[in-house]
Amino acid sequence: MDEISLSRQEMGIYCKYLTGLDADEQCLLLFYRAIQHEETVLNDAEIKKLQFIIRNPGSMGLIDSALGMFNPEHALRKRMVIAFAILETSPVYYEFFKPKTFSRGHIFTLFAKGIQEAFQAIAGSIILILI
Amino acid sequence: MAAQTLVEKGVQVLMLDGGVTDSEYAGTIPDKDYLTIKQQETNQYEYFIGKNFEGIPFGHIKTGEHLTPPRKFMIDKVRHWMPLSSNSFFPLESLALGGLGNGWGLGCCMFSYSELKEAGLDSVAMNSAYETVGKRIGISGTGDDTSKYTAGHLSELMPSIEMDSTGKNLYQNYQREKGKLNKNGFFMGRPSLALLTENRGNRKAYQYKDLDFYCNQDKSAYRPTFTIDDLKLKSNFTYIGGLVVLKFEEGANSIRVECKRQDNYETVVFECRKLVIAASCLSSARIVLRSFDAYNVQLPIISNPYSYLPALQPYLLGKDTDQRKVGFAQLSLFYDPDFTNTNVAMSSIYSYRSMMAFHILKETPMSTKHGFEFLQYMMPAFTIAGLFHPEHGGPGKYLELQKTAGSITGDVLHVNYKLTDAENQKVAFNERKFTQALRQLSCFVLKKMNPGHGSGIHYAGTLPFSNKNEKFKLLPNGKLGETKNVYVADGSGFTYLPAKGLTFSLMANAHNVALNALQG
Known about the structure:
Chain A is an all-alpha fold. In chain A, 71% of the residues lie in helices and 0% in strands. Chain A has helices at 3-19, 25-34, 44-55, 60-70, 75-88, 94-97, 106-130.
């Protein structure tokens, strides 16, 4: 798979995973340009991990949690943050990123998500070791 | 400010300047507020994250990394023309038209009598200059508990800007707790800002667009470029940009100033009767050291230790009800433990929105997805306290110019900056005190961030004031020792750096030095 197709698939998965929507053309193009930065270039082992995510998009959440918690300087994590920044500055995804008001009870939802996050991070770490 | 004073007095002024301007982003931001832009503008990524993604922090955060893409021009060409080496000091310098003033946070504080004395400044002249400068730039503020630390008692003051929920909630808590806090030396109030809240000429009152880190379309925030633009209309003022001043040589009747052009590296020489240097204290030191061929000579430097404390106000969790947010400081918190208005530590309080979630997300030890869900809930409650500490010089704080073949100027400025153990303990003590005071205001500090020496962008003291006519010292009137007609009008002379915002005092001093240059 060539570099451009790989980057389009990668951004497509991040976008769907984060916002539930498909990535629009502008975001796909911007993502390809942004990941040319030397800090985000992947080595062979990282490319293998990315290819695993592309083949198994369902693993995205687990790997995202593992990298966020245990390896925040990983190039894939940096690319996820880039994807996030591109989506955050696109009006197409405004509804997802706009400021929101939550009920007091929302803290319990977040608490549950925090616990889920810990389990996901452990499972994701195991996957990353095995790939 | 010095140039304006000289021009107003009718003398011929030639300004030699780095003159770097923003050619990339000027005029690209639509005249709308932050949320409307977020909702409507397809090309918003250009100014929010940068045409070349320079607004995304890829690696370790360095000084200046926090500048938004439209502000990055401030530091363009600096590494090339002003090389600096240090493993302990990370300053921000500028060759821009208007210099670091392009990103100034607008805080206007007046040094107290004892602070002025300790800094080597004349209190009568400075208090008069504060009034003059205040009238020139336009200041908004409020007379409150902190007036004696800010510029809240100037004769001409516009009303303060409105606070958003971050400021309102904290200030309400302060009103409830102020008895106890005041007893412990803490005072909170509205900062004096060089920000218009009433229309004035071609400058409009602040419009609450929450784009304060990106642009200044209404010119409500004072920037030095406004003054230079006005001066360019005067017949006794000439401006030449695109230069780097290297050195001067004083002759019997004139001073020869040697510069290099940035575009073709050609050497250009100007002659003048009097020279006023205001290149900021690091560059003024470079010019003076080169002029005296003084390599490997150590000069002192002072820079306020700076840290910032991200905090949460739990009451505001999940309540993003503000349509209008404010990027500038909304409150100031001063710690004056002995009630003498000397050695006061100062914190400016900010809310967080227009810098966007991705900057914080990067630092969140969670997945991007869950991390953002947490952030969305927490962002209305985020409160940033930027904390400055007062600073004296010391043996571990110095700079020297070293010759090197590898740089365009043939030299590199080496800076060493090390606090003593006692100073480090004092800084840590103050941070603990501020953390406790904020907790008393139901605002809980999450982390202490220390970006390193120089990151506070308050520098001074490289050519300290002295009553003796000595080389590398300034006489109290700003004249450089052992020269006849060379003056330094920036903070190079200050022998002490209060924690209070420095810029207003720099401008006042520049005005005074210009007046002294006319008399001398």
